[in-house]
Amino acid sequence: MFDLKKTILDLIFPIYCLECRQVGAWVCRRCFEDIKSCAKWQENFLDNQHLSQVWSLFDYHQPIIAKILHAYKYEFITDLEKIISDILSQAVLSQDFAKQIKPEFVDLICPVPLSKKRRRWRGFNQSEILAEVVAKSFNLPVSDDILNRKFHTRAQVGLPAKLREINIKGIFQANSFSVLEKRILLVDDVLTTGATMKECARVLKEAGAKEVIGLVFAKG
Ligand SMILES: [Zn+2]
Fold first, then answer.
1. From ligand 1's centre to the CA of 73, what distance in Å?
2. What structural domains does the chain harbor?
3. Gap from CA of 131 to ligand 1 centroid (Å)
4. What is the DSSP letter of 24?
């Protein structure tokens, strides 16, 4: 349908490709085709008994990936949701990932929750987009009610590794009834020190989960 408001806005504030500045789209076709998924098993993050595997789909150091995630998270360019969803769909279907993580290995797909305060401020949870893409290709629902954040804590960005662990400790709560004996795919957006993912995995395992596999959009 013709959207007059959008057309006028596009004339006043033309959209540029975040990577090459070509006018017309947030990510032009050529740059979109250049995006490479590099599904990787992040072995370094398996230093405790709670996560059995951790996968990243992209490298945050690939400039276009960093620009897309930054623009989406901090500049609130919500039009990027479709692009993010498209590149994630491709990555989830990529050989490296699809060979290792199959729908029959997973019972529940759970995004890392944001605090209610941050969720309200931001209006969305970027981990939910990845969770939804995976859920669609695995033909499973997103279980966004099995893990809750009890408190609002300061953002992890900028904190050194040790402080991140302290900052996040004890803030999650799992619903034991739902996770008991389940194999859970835990989804987050960016993996930096892994503190958030490890803490979520610990809580899920202590609540009775059989296995927790981590999956992140990008490795920082
Ligand atoms: Zn471009």
1. 20
2. 38-219 (3.40.50.2020)
3. 27
4. T
Helix (H) or strand (E) holding 11: helix 4-12
Phi/psi of residue 188, nearest 5 degrees: -135, 170
- Neighbouring CB atoms inside 10 A of 156's CB total 17
Q: Which residues contact 7 (CB under 8 A, 6 or more apart)?
A: none
Q: What is the DSSP string of 81-150?
A: HHHHHHHHHHHHHSHHHHHH--GGG-SEEEEPPPPHHHHHHHSS-HHHHHHHHHHHHHT--B-TTSEEE-
pTM equals 0.82
Q: Are 86 and 92 in contact (CB under 8 A)?
A: no
Nearest-CA neighbor of 124 among 84, 81, 172, 65?
Answer: 81
Classify burial at 41, counting beta carbons within 10 Å of its beta carbon; exposed 0-12, middle 13-18, buried 19 or more: middle
Q: How far is the CA of 30 from the centre of ligand 1 (A)?
A: 6
**Residue 134: Cβ-neighbour burial (10 angstroms; 0-12, 13-18, 19+):** buried
Dig out the tokens for 93 from the structure: 């279907």
Report the separation in Å between the CA atom of 37 and the middle of ligand 1, taken as the mean of its atom positions. 17
| Band of residue 183 on the pLDDT scale cut at 50, 70, 90 | very high
Which residues are registered as beta bridge partners of 211? 183
CA pair distance 172, 200, nearest whole angstrom: 7
Tens-place pLDDT, residues 95-149: 777 888 888 889 999 999 876 666 676 666 778 888 998 899 889 989 988 998 8
